[in-house]
Amino acid sequence: MSAQAVAVYCASSTGSDPRHAAVAAALGRALADHAIELVYGGGHVGLMGVVADAALAAGGRVTGVITESLMYAEVGHAGLSELLTVPTMHERKALMSARADAFVMLPGGYGTLDEFFEAVTWSQLGIHDKPCIILDPTGYYAPLMAFVDNAIAEGFVKERNRALITYSRSVDDVVTLLRSRKLPNV
């Protein structure tokens, strides 16, 4: 079974490396090209805006889920297929999870990490069995993956749970994985 909708977690800024925005745009276009709905944080700014705008420009369906407080701080995207406003971050994450068949993380900070690792934790706990993918062609998350490997070596993460995260360096590979749901770890 292929993914019909994917939650993408990413920053409300574009960061200092322009390659991050290029990857976000490429992912948005690729999702639209393969009729995979984008579910994301609902903002019009940063990498969130880039991935959403690219998907929309390519004719894709884009659903944003944003909290009431962030609706103004992140300038909620007015041009989406659907924009859902919820009271809390907990509700935001739960609704994004419910609407997605898989999760993809692009570069971001604390909020991006929180959202992605909650999805990973829910998988570890058996709450869902949806793929959790880090898309990282630039190596931004290489230190994070080293941390995960160290957590395994130190006995804080079980070796079998390393397979809960798929690390990919290519948009094309991510789309192939989403379409096939065969998710080997790279």
State the low-pLDDT regions, or none: none
Quote the beta fraction. 15-25%
Strand order of the largest sheet: 4-3-2-1-5-6-7
Q: Estimate percent helicity.
A: 40-55%
Report, as a whole number of angstroms, the end-to-end distance.
Answer: 21 Å
Strand tally: 7
* Shape category: globular
The whole-angstrom Rg is 15 Å
Query: If you average the pLDDT, what whole number results?
Result: 94
The total count of helices amounts to 7
Compressed to H and E, one letter per element, the order equals EHEHEHEHEHEHEH
Global structural class: alpha/beta
How would you characterize the largest beta sheet? 7 strands, parallel
Explained architecture:
The protein is α/β, with parallel strands linked by helices and 186 residues long. Helix content is 44%, strand content 17%. The chain has a seven-stranded parallel sheet with strand order 4-3-2-1-5-6-7, with helices on both faces. Helix 6 links the parallel strand 6 and strand 7. Helix 1 packs parallel to helix 2. The protein is globular. The relative contact order is 0.17.
